[in-house]
Amino acid sequence: MEDFASHQAVHFTSPHVRAFVARKSKTPAASNSWLKMFGMIFQHGVDKGELERNPATGIARMKEMAAGAKSWDDEEIAKYESYWPSGTTARLALYLLLYTGQRRSDVVRMGWSDIREGCMLAVEQVKTGTKLLIPVHPVLAQEIDQIPKGQPTFLATKKGLPFSVHVFSHSVTRWVEKCGIKERLSPHGLRKAAARRMAEAGCSPHQIASITGHKTLSEIERYTRAVDQSRLARDAVLKIGRGSFTKS
Q1: What's the pLDDT score for residue 8?
Q2: Are the beta carbons of 111 and 153 closer than 8 angstroms?
Q3: Per residue in 152-176, is it b (16+ CB within 10 Å) or e — as a string?
Q4: Which of 47, 199, 213, 247 is the Cys-Cys partner for 224 at CB 3.0 to 4.6 Å?
Q5: Which PROSITE patterns match (predicted)?
Q6: Does any domain span residue 165?
């Protein structure tokens, strides 16, 4: 346990918080995670009237250079698909993440009770509360149809119970490793891959957001940086050139 846990919350000042957060300076994401944790704890004390102020307020987050979870590329997706056959939990997990574009916290909660009109999936995002109606892709529908109607969630452990987010993430990591994929891929990387694929298919940012639930277009831009630039450039030149490239 970290030593800051032994100190009284009322004795914390901003310099104390900065000092503790600085311990993670070599890993900016972890440092920012600690800062967020401190902020939530102290704000709770302020809201209850036990603290006069939140000492984490006003402390700048560290700049994170990493792009976050890696977006799965098409080769990795194909390798995963070829390894895990239809009807397996691993294949269903892939399709739920890839064809809904939702977070792992939303995917583990999906079940038959969320199906509307036979072809729409109702989602209320855990993180944002955003409510969405997403068409069920035919490929995903084939996997869902193999799930017993009485099962509480589409994804279930070997004991037939819903996955926790933590266990689900570790399961996906294990399924990826069994495929022989060397990259460390996560469920969130499939959310990025879903946005990338929609962008490559010519979907507008607003169309992508209607699936992913993002509130701002800048967030969509972040998720679609992995778009095949050469493919988009070719499409753009073809449009300008009225369907053909200029020959030298």
Answers
A1: 83
A2: yes
A3: ebbbbeeeeebbebeebbebbeebb
A4: 199
A5: TYR_RECOMBINASE
A6: yes
Name the β-bridge partners of 134: 121
* Residue 61: pLDDT band with limits 50, 70, 90: confident
Tokens of 188: 């969130």
Residues 58 and 93 in one domain: no
Instruction: In whole angstroms, give the CA distance from residue 92 to residue 85.
Output: 9
Eight-state DSSP code of residue 185: -
Asked if 132 and 123 touch (Cβ cutoff 8 Å), the reply is: yes
Residues 6+ apart with CB under 8 A from 90: 80, 84, 171, 172, 175
How many domains, the chain? 2
Residues 91 and 153 placed together within one structural domain of the fold: yes
Per the structure, the complete domain to which residue 225 belongs is given by 74-232
The number of residues making up the chain comes to 248
